[in-house]
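Help needed: design a sequence for this.
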């Protein structure tokens, strides 16, 4: 984060589309010592949690929400979304990313490649 006029700003990046080979290499890095799908999911969850810069804003069904984190569930990885006092989990496979993606968003792309 950097500051301007005393206000903190998070750096957003434009993530270019990674090649299938690059995504496969990222999946391999995250799952190198895993024995089954659950361990692979845990490996990918760790990489997303360690690298994805939160919070960030995105739009879900036409409404701006703040992604405050990512949770590893038995059904996969979900984004913890908030708007005011309302909270909703949105599967990372379904989460639209903003045009300027947050740092670490490439790990969401790697997770999506693995999950499909």
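Sure. Designed sequence:
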């Amino acid at each position: 984060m950097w500051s301007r006029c005393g206000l903190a700003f998070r750096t957003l990046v434009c993530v270019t589309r990674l090649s299938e080979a690059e995504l496969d290499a990222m999946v391999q890095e995250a799952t190198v010592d895993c024995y089954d799908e659950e361990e692979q999911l845990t490996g990918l969850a760790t990489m997303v949690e360690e690298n994805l810069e939160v919070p960030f804003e995105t739009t879900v069904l036409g409404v701006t929400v703040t992604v405050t984190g990512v949770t590893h569930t038995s059904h996969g990885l979900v984004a913890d979304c908030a708007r005011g006092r309302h909270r909703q989990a949105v599967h990372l496979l379904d989460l639209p990313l903003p045009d300027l993606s947050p740092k670490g968003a490439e790990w969401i792309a790697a997770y999506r490649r693995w999950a499909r």
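The longest strand covers residues 63-73.
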